[in-house]
Amino acid sequence: MSRRLFLVAAMAAAGASDTRAQTPPVAAMSAKVDPDYCVEDAAEFHGVNPVLLRTILRVETRMRPDTIVRNENGTVDVGIAGINSIHFPKLAKWEIGPQDLLDPCVGTYVGAWHLKLTLSNRPETWESIARYHSATPYFNQRYQIMLWNEMVRSGVVQGQRLPVPPLKLGLAKKPAGKNSVGQAVADQGNGVVFDEGRSRQ
Question: Topology of 3-119 in CATH?
Answer without folding.
Answer: Lysozyme (1.10.530)
